[in-house]
């Protein structure tokens, strides 16, 4: 399965594409979509959308995994991030990709085994799991790769449950 992980934002959108097969990971690419404060906001959204479409076309992920939006104390920031998430979601939809969302707690649990892990612990484990020489920069990129790992772990767990149910049903006939 090829998974695109996204850490949404409007100044920096971290992205990472991994292949997950037979409990093994392979990194296909990662980076960040960046926009500058000098750009008009609609142009920033257009840049994010266009770059997302390019990533979908280049890597052909089967699914996209993205961090759930959480509210912080700055209403302007959360609204702008929500708009960026909207164009990211639109790019996935236009490329007919399923979208999965995970909370930071779910990502930490999946990557480190501990839901209250510190950010550096998640980044170090991401580096280790993906056999990278260094932690990807910016941090948003490492977060996006962790998001993809989380989906790989969660989807394989769900598949195992389905397989167990199917096998049980077939064996009981």
Description:
The chain has a single domain (2-171), classed as Ribonuclease H-like superfamily/Ribonuclease H (Nucleotidyltransferase, domain 5), CATH 3.30.420.10. A hairpin with a 4-residue loop joins β1 and β2 (12-21). The chain has five helices and five strands. Residues 159-173 have low confidence and may be disordered. By secondary structure, it is α/β, with parallel strands linked by helices. It is 53% helix and 21% strand. α3 crosses α5 (139-171). The protein starts with a strand and ends with a helix. A five-stranded mixed sheet has the order 3-2-1-4-5.
Task: Give the key terms.
173 residues, 53% helix, five-stranded mixed sheet, alpha/beta, Nucleotidyltransferase, domain 5
**Rounded mean pLDDT score:** 90
Profile the largest sheet.
5 strands, mixed
CATH superfamily: Ribonuclease H-like superfamily/Ribonuclease H
SS-based structural class? Answer: alpha/beta
End-to-end C-alpha gap: 31 Å
Order of helices and strands: EEEHEHEHHH
- What is the third-level CATH name, the topology? Nucleotidyltransferase, domain 5
Tally of discrete structural domains: 1
Helix-residue proportion = 40-55%
Q: So what's the CATH class?
A: Alpha Beta
SSE blueprint:
Layout (H helix, E strand, L loop, with lengths): L1 E6 L4 E10 L2 E11 L6 H19 L3 E5 L7 H20 L3 E5 L1 H9 L6 H11 L9 H33 L2
Parallel strand pairs: 1-4, 4-5
Antiparallel strand pairs: 1-2, 2-3
Helix pairs in contact: 1-2, 3-4, 3-5, 4-5
Short synopsis of the structure:
The protein is of the alpha/beta class. The chain has helices at residues 41-59, 75-94, 104-112, 119-129, 139-171; strands at 2-7, 12-21, 24-34, 63-67, 98-102. It has one domain (2-171): 2-Layer Sandwich (Nucleotidyltransferase, domain 5), CATH 3.30.420.10.
């Amino acid at each position: 399965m090829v998974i695109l992980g996204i850490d949404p934002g409007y100044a920096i959108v971290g992205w990472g594409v991994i292949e997950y097969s037979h409990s093994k990971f392979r990194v296909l690419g990662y980076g960040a979509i960046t926009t500058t404060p000098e750009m008009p906001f609609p142009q920033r959204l257009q840049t994010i959308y266009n770059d997302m479409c390019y990533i979908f076309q280049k890597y052909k992920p089967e699914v996209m995994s993205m961090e759930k939006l959480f509210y912080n104390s700055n209403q302007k920031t959360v609204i702008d991030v929500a708009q960026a998430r909207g164009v990211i979601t639109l790019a996935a939809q236009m490329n007919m990709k399923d979208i999965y969302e995970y909370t930071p707690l779910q990502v930490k649990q999946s990557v480190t085994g501990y839901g209250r892990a510190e950010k550096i612990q998640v980044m170090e484990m991401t580096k280790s799991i993906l056999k990278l020489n260094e932690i990807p920069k910016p941090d948003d990129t490492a977060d996006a790769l962790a998001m993809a790992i989380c989906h790989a772990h969660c989807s394989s767990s769900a598949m195992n449950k389905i397989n167990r149910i199917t096998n049980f049903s077939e064996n009981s006939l």
